[in-house]
Amino acid sequence: MPKKILILSASPRKGGNSDLLCDQFAKGAEEAGHQAEKLRVQEQKIRPCLACYGCRGTGACVQKDDMAAILDKMVEADVLVLATPVYFYSMDGQLKTLIDRTLPRYTEIRDKEVYFIATAAAGKGAMERTIDSMRGFTDCLPGAQVKGVIYGSGVYQKGEVLETRASQEAYQAGKRA
């Protein structure tokens, strides 16, 4: 049965290493008959959470930006892919801001299959804190199941990741999604 896959590419660089792995995941998913949509977080207008709790009981943020539409897509998707470059041993600000802004409806983002993609100049060990943070988010989503983690390690220059096994791993994960 075809699945609806939402790929949240948090790379600030279009065509950056984590963004390219998102493309590989989408390619595999589409070849397997799934519907894949890649959303470049950098191109969205998402303001930081105000912690005002204006969303409490309403399910809607008081801020009027692109996050409401993104939340709709997250709720509707069967599969979520969260992708980020690793900066200072953590996810980038674009992904963290998006995660924080799920507060109004995070309990509706339920029963999702989730994949993580992370890229870094350092090795896999340097990315574990980032993956732990991403797992912390999915631990808050009812019924979420992490199905895979793709580590694009040892890449710094734009495009280097395509010469690593992570590129094929992302493609294969998309086919299996």
How would you describe the overall organization of this protein?
It is built from five helices and six strands. It has 177 residues and is of the alpha/beta class. The chain starts with a strand and ends with a helix. The mean pLDDT is 97.
Topology:
Layout lengths: L3 E6 L7 H15 L3 E6 L26 H10 L2 E9 L2 E2 L1 H8 L12 E8 L7 H12 L5 E9 L11 H12 L1
Parallel strand pairs: 1-2, 1-3, 3-5, 5-6
Antiparallel strand pairs: 3-4
Helix pairs in contact: 1-5
Protein name: Flavodoxin family protein
GO molecular function, one term: oxidoreductase activity
Keywords: Flavoprotein, FMN
Reading the helices and strands in chain order gives EHEHEEHEHEH
Indicate the proportion of strand residues: 15-25%
Instruction: Catalogue the unreliable spans.
Output: none
Main beta sheet: strand number and arrangement? 6 strands, mixed
How many helices does DSSP assign?
5
What is the averaged pLDDT score?
97
Distance between the termini: 11 Å
Find the structural class using helix and strand composition: alpha/beta
Radius of gyration: 15 Å
Count the beta strands.
6
Helix content: 25-40%
Describe the global form.
globular
InterPro entries: Flavoprotein-like_sf (IPR029039), FMN_Rdtase-like_dom (IPR005025), ISF_SsuE-like (IPR051796)
Pfam family, one: FMN_red
GO molecular function: oxidoreductase activity
Protein name: Flavodoxin family protein
